[in-house]
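Lab notebook page, bench 4
Experiment: in silico fold of construct C2
Operator: M.H.
Input chain length: 129 residues
Purpose: comparison with the prior construct
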Amino acid sequence: MPHELETKYLAYLDALNDRRFGDLDGFVHDELTYNDKVLTREQYADMITADSRAVPDLHFDARLLVVTDDTVACRLWFDCTPVSTFFGCAPTGKSISFGEHVFYRFRAGRIAHVWSLIDREAIAAQLRD
């Protein structure tokens, strides 16, 4: 039986994949820390929205998921095609694949901290080749 936090996290990914960014209030605190920077939920949603505009087929695919009491660790995988500048790289029409290793700390059932490492080198190399 899945851990309650796993179910919540997968529902969060579904909201992102369905572009239901207005639903983030059910998953993310009003204020959170993202890679040690304090953001409002709106700023966090704007960041994800901008990525989704640059890469319309961006799909959050949880490949490895570990859940503890208040923490989720996930290796997300992406197969997509940027249509505008993405992480500083101009689009070339090529599809790219890359991973993100991300850790979330939940408080009272919502995301309070995010630590994210995106393989930007892989993105740049694929768009350069």
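Observations: The chain has a mean pLDDT of 95. The radius of gyration is 15 Å.
Next step: discuss at group meeting.
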